[in-house]
Amino acid sequence: MADTPLDPKAERARRAHGHVLLFETVNGPEAHGSWLAISLSDGSCDMKAYPTKVDATRFQLHETQCAYLCLTVISQSTCHIKK
Question: In the predicted model, is pLDDT for residue 36 greater than 90?
Answer without folding.
Answer: yes
